[in-house]
């Protein structure tokens, strides 16, 4: 009988039970996997929702907040149901929107918001002006690194739910740094050098080639000319 129900009030009651899972107060019917999946299919067809587990809710807080800001309702479901969702379609034939699908949709719609250095604050400009010396610490800027740009927005890290602070765009030859990194010379320099290591190695994070490039010693003469923030030691 439960599986035959598609009225809004019944679906809402089933979903409310699903979200009580972590508190252990859900009714017996929603412990049946097929009933819980039926409720999710009906809800996915009716409202803008994102399904995730309690662990994902805690681990991917920034992305969850983006989903809420985009007008999505967050539905916490048991892990047994969450594992089934990627292979299912809702009552209207649409794919189920779990956290990974929302992440993909968000990445596909992402656009950088570039900031002209003329718009930097005095403190940001002081950090930005160290860029030539940061490159000099690694032997200068390679020809294929055509530009360093600063963006207010940044896409998510590969395979993760957190925002990156910098990216290497080989197609454009750009190192792109999140504007928040300009709050600190150490953070800005670290991000530029990290992305420069991607540009020089042509390899992704965690690869041997990238790690070797990242650990390459900097020029002693160049690093001695790098400005240090108050309170830092060389």
Verbal overview:
The protein has about 230 residues and is mainly α. It folds into two domains: about 1-110, no CATH class; about 115-225, Zincin-like, CATH 3.30.2010. Helix content is about 40%, strand content about 10%. The strands form two sheets. The protein has a three-stranded mixed β-sheet with strand order 3-5-4, with helices on one face. Helix 1 (about 10-20) packs across helix 2 (about 35-45) and helix 9 (about 185-200) packs across helix 10 (about 210-215). The longest helix has 17 residues, at about 185-200. The radius of gyration is 24 Å and the shape is elongated.
Which keywords apply here?
single chain, 234 residues, mainly alpha, Zincin-like, 2 domains, three-stranded mixed sheet, two-stranded parallel ribbon, 11 helices, disordered C terminus
Describe this structure in a few short sentences:
By secondary structure, the protein is mainly alpha-helical. It has helices at residues 8-19, 33-46, 54-59, 61-69, 79-82, 99-109, 122-128, 131-136, 185-201, 208-214, 220-223; strands at residues 49-52, 73-76, 147-151, 166-169, 174-178. Mean pLDDT is 82; it is low at 220-234.
